[in-house]
Specification:
The protein is α+β, with helices and mostly antiparallel strands. It is 56% helix and 16% strand.
């Protein structure tokens, strides 16, 4: 298994995790004890990272399946303790899943751009589909200026390029 340090040395993974949990979260990961399970309070004490930051980071990682917990109930007090451990071995799968989701959204956007004809109000800089423009008699509903045809070919070309690059990076081009 790859260490946290090795993962964070990868610029793409570091950027992804940084965007997800911020600098303080990265600091928690760097100081996270290897092996075993730890409560959020223990982690805050062991790492010197603020308890709220520890909790926020762990929950964010949990939402992405990059951390897991085991819940223990104190039979005397009824209090629950969550013991956490990292699952950063999944980061590549999580990243790939998110890239595939982004690809799906880009494909849908490209289909929308190719399927529709667009009209724009030069005054308001708002773009409308043909259907909406026709419903408003090709007048802007905001300022009543005439709508002009909008050529979206540059958008479609940019989307195709982006889709091709993503597919190539996923090895499915």
């Amino acid at each position: 298994m790859v260490s946290v340090t090795e993962l964070l040395d990868d610029p793409a993974i570091n950027a992804y995790i940084l965007r997800m949990i911020g600098e303080e979260g990265i600091e928690l990961l760097r100081r996270f004890p290897e092996g075993g399970e730890h409560s959020d309070e223990e982690l805050a004490e062991m790492t010197g990272v603020n308890l709220n930051t520890v909790r926020h980071t762990l929950y964010t990682l949990y939402e992405r399946r990059l951390a897991e917990y085991r819940r223990l109930k104190n039979t005397e007090t009824g209090w629950l303790t969550y013991l956490w451990h990292l699952r950063l071995d999944r980061v590549h799968d999580v990243l790939e899943e998110q890239v595939r989701d982004a690809l799906e959204h880009l494909d849908a956007r490209l289909a929308y751009e190719e399927k529709n004809d667009f009209y724009m109000c030069r005054n308001c800089s708002v773009v409308y589909t043909f259907t909406d423009a026709a419903n408003w008699n090709f007048e802007c509903p905001n300022c009543e200026e005439m709508l002009e045809h909008f050529d979206n070919e540059l958008i479609a070309v940019a989307l195709r390029k982006r889709i091709d690059r993503i597919k190539e990076s996923l090895g499915s081009a």
